[in-house]
Amino acid sequence: MKVDRRSFLSFVIGGAAGTALSPLPWKLMDDSSIWSQMWPWTPVPPDGEVVYEDSTCTLCPGGCGISVRKVDHRAVKIEGKKGHPVNDGGICILGLSGLQLLYGPTRIKSPMKRIGERGQGKWQKISWDEAMAILTEKLSDIRNKGEAHTVAAIAGTEGGTVPALLQRFMTAYGSPNFIRTPSHQDADELAVKTLFGASGRTGFDLENADYILSFGSGIVDGWGSPVRMFRASSLWKEKNVTVVQVEPRLSNSAAKATRWIPVNPGTEADLALGIAAVMIAQNMVDPGAVAGAGGWENQLLANYGTKKVSQVTGVDAGVILELAKGFAKANRPLALCGRGKGLVAESLRETAAVYALNALTGNINQEGGMWAIPEADYIRWPDVASDELASAGLAQPRLDGAGTGRYAGARHLLNRLADAVNGGGPYPLQALLVAGANPCYDLPDTRSVRMALERIPFIVSFSSFNDETAAMADLLLPDHVYLERYGDVPVGAGLAQQVIGLSKPVVSPQFNTRHLGETLIVAARTMGGATADAFPWDNYETCLEETLAEKWDALIEEGIWVEADIAPVADTVRLAVTDAPAVQAEGDVNSFPLLLIPYDSIRLSSGYIGDPPFMIKTVSGTVVKGKDGFIEINPQTASATGLSEGSVATLTTPRGEARVRVHLFEGIQPGVVAMARGLGHTAYDGYLAGKGVNVNELIGPVEDPSSGHDAAWGIRAKLAKA
Amino acid sequence: MSTLDKKAKEAMDDDTAHASGGGDNGAGGFIILFFIIGFAASMVLGWVVFPKLLYSQKQQPFSFNHALHVGEVDEGCESCHFFREDGSFSGIPKLAQCTDCHEEPMGETEDEAIFVEQYVAKEREVPWFSYSRQPDCVFFSHAAHVVGAKMDCVACHGHIGESERSRPYEYNRLTGYSRDIWGKNIAGFKNNSWDRMKMDDCAQCHKEAGIIHTSSVQTQRDACFVCHK
């Protein structure tokens, strides 16, 4: 049989006919269209049972209630908890993005020890047992040498049992160096103590006020408890409440206000005192709430004449009079302070001036006014019984100098730590524990902070994230993130009530992390002796339950404890004559003709939490574009330096230098340069690292002469075309 | 005339001679034979080999006896495949449901041993393969069909409740779909309503089910978005 061409063709035709009559082409066509419509590598979220778990957000001090939507065991969305007294169903952009912190690539997944050079990023995963052994051996060594005081701990906050355990650990161990990260809380506590003569904090009945005079507080930029502030701001619009925003820059808060008063940077206190002087001069003062004001009033009238204040602040004399009248004549006026989100302490002079304004209107502890209330006091552990080593350590002065001498009024001065470690302190530091804080990014003059950390031989980070400080550490003991752990959250943030929220595990721990409270209890137990005695609890949950006592059941049930009926710390404000000078910006006017001021944005998270990917995507292209960070300058400033929109410039301050792009903005005074806080990270993930400039590298701390707190509101700067 | 032309002419003459010669009758038969061979081979390829190549098989983690369980429970299918409080359908039961009864082995079969040792003891969910899962582009609500339209489970799932063993899970290598979606029959023929669950099968039933399925004004039928959200 010879297979010729015709036979072959015949075979092919037969094959084609058979194929057409078989399902092969038709099925393949169908399948390939399905395949191309739904690529097999496109992730499909698994289906499952939907449940909501309530908890409390701890990403900022705001204390919002959250409801986390879960499908089976995965958290898929964070929503605001309806009916919650702080946020009633609302949520901010950071709270919404929280799942990216839980599941994202920035997590530290296991305890690790450094194996490369510091900052090189070479780590070795170790077991918790090994990690705890390294920690306790090192700490025991230092303590047994009688040098317990040379260990310091930095915490992001002081509120709640976890920071309290860290503080207790330091006390039992024998170190006076528990240091809280700076914020406006520092100035607020000191102002309450100075004006009311008792410890406490302020709370603001914003919802019932009918005239708001804000000295730079970012009402919709993240001040206080952000979601509550958005709501208050909307409520004021509805009720036609006058909102006056005093701020050098047209921020979102200023744009939303009824009136924006552009003021020379750093002169807010002068304006507040100027307004007070007008109120006194024109007899528009409520005498009830003010005691011993005679001397203070005379000083004010002598030093803060409208004309002089107008010159200093750049606000027209007529406007000052109008503000004074508007504020004094309103039924329930309220003045606020704490720049932006309130991340910097600010001077006592400024805070006290604004609180004095409130006092003069008689709104202290009144509906719609400013309240001075005690902190929620529910952590009642027995005093630590110090052993000899601990007593010796505790007898040493604090490294930051807080609480003694010229810093007698301050409780924490983290801004002074770098100088102290870099040679100015009474003793060198041998170990540093960092929890819920990121000093290598967050403190002004980050370069000297990094230098200081390089001198400390042993650094332990409890951070859940690969942040800048964790990168400098020798030992990483990662804490759970807030969605994986229990915790009590006492909320300050300008609330006029005492509110305690409860954080509950919404999902089980995703990685080999451990609750910081647990880590501390285990460490204390391992160290034995008096340190162990101070930590009698089996585990953190027992500690929390025992501490919250009668509140525990309510917190488990409701997720929140509200004490609305609280006695104020005092009703009268004592105004005393002070001679505190205004805080000046660092730098010489001739070499640095401009002023750099940082500003806060709700789209850029600050502090210990880095911007999650969702959030960084929402930042405008005039703030950060690609890797470039922008500064805002007035077109006049730009033309004087030959810059135009988008041009690249070098911004120099006495503390550093950075390459920036220029954004022209009419909403900023000529001669002033504004830069967003929250950019220029070197750590975290590829979504955040390397974008923009960290303003803290350009700015340095300026000590408030009254307290030692960092009161820097800006720094002198110069700009050159690059 | 060139040499090449000459050769070509000779070849043509040769061919003509073959075609007209009486001794070449078998050539036509060959052609038909080859046609039949090609036809048959491609039919075998398309109907028999192709489905074997297209579909791959996986065994379920262990065999499940529906018939036995249906006999033990009171509410039929809904005893295990129930609607949750929010109206969503639970689908394949989770381990927690099974352990209500199966904390300890409840029989002596090998499958029961695998279940208790591998999954109950280790608190691992059983990674069942779902025969009936529609792709992600399809929004399917059990509530609308079972509660709303009062349809019987059998209408789509057939008599799986009577099965005594879990049959192998077959899936399409190209699309990843379960074979049950296209149907066992490679040509797409079906005898029962549950034999296949492609879009046309949904559409057919929606068309038959009457006047409520007219969400598209243009076509007076259900619009695309009813299922494709």
What are the secondary-structure elements of chain B, in order, as H or E? HHEHHHHHEHH
Which stretches of chain B are poorly predicted, pLDDT < 50 over at least 5 residues?
A: 8-23
Q: What's the total helix number of chain B?
A: 9
- Strand percentage of chain A, roughly? 15-25%
Overall radius of gyration of chain B: 29 Å
N-to-C span of chain B? 75 Å
The helix-and-strand class of chain A reads alpha/beta
> Reading side by side through the largest sheet of chain B, how are the strands ordered?
1-2
* Fraction in helix of chain A: 25-40%
Largest interface, by Cβ-Cβ below 8 angstroms: which chains and how many residues each? A-B, 36 and 39 residues
Helical content of chain B, roughly? Answer: 40-55%
Q: At the third CATH level, what is the topology name of the largest domain in chain A?
A: Rossmann fold
Q: On the 0-100 scale, what is the average pLDDT of chain A?
A: 91
The rounded distance between the terminal residues' Cα atoms of chain A is 86 Å
Low-confidence stretches of chain A: none
Q: What's the gyration radius of chain A in Å? A: 29 Å
The main β sheet of chain B shows up as:
2 strands, antiparallel
* Strand residue percentage of chain B: under 5%
CATH architecture of the largest domain in chain A, please? 3-Layer(aba) Sandwich
Quick summary:
The complex is a heterodimer of chains A (722) and B (229). Chain A has 25 helices and 28 strands. With 722 residues, chain A is α/β, with parallel strands linked by helices.
Features:
heterodimer, A: 722 residues, alpha/beta, Rossmann fold, Dimethylsulfoxide Reductase, domain 2, six-stranded mixed barrel, 25 helices, 33% helix, B: 229 residues, mainly alpha, two-stranded antiparallel ribbon, flat
